[in-house]
Amino acid sequence: MPDHVHMLISIPPEYSVSHIVGFLKGKTSLYVANKYARKRRYKGYHFWARGYFVSTTGYQEQVVRRYIQNQKKKDKASDYNDLFNLSY
User: Fold this and answer.
1) Which of 49, 56, 71, 77 counts the highest number of beta carbons within 10 A?
2) Is 67 one of the annotated active-site residues of the chain?
3) Which of 45, 52, 67, 80 is catalytic?
């Protein structure tokens, strides 16, 4: 999605969630900064928001997987509906 990311990952028990999320955010922000630094100034730019949401899936993994896969379609539909519900 243009303004957020959904990920379904499995984390081994020896790693904390905060360690894995910090690692993912750090590595991806470095990658984006290195790849697009010429096109955009990234000095002092924070690529990721400070927080994140985490939930366990357990037996409902397939429900979460379908939600992530269908999110783009649902977001596009809601964006279209928002065009007609503007409050000025």
Assistant:
1) 71
2) yes
3) 67
Q: Which two tokens stand for residue 16?
A: 């904390």
Local structure of 36: helix, strand or coil: helix
* CA–CA distances in Å: residue 33 to residues 20, 41, 49: 20, 9, 15
- Tokens at 80, concatenated: 């279209």
Both tokens of 82, joined, read 């928002």
Distances (CA, A) of 57 to 8, 23, 54, 68, 72: 9, 21, 10, 13, 20
User: 0.70 exceeded by the pTM?
Assistant: no
Please identify which residue in the block is written with the tokens 């243009």.
2
| Residue ranges in the chain modelled with pLDDT below 70 | 1-2, 38-46, 74-88
Residues 6+ apart with CB under 8 A from 28: 47, 48
DSSP states along 53-73: -----GGGHHHHHHHHHHHHH
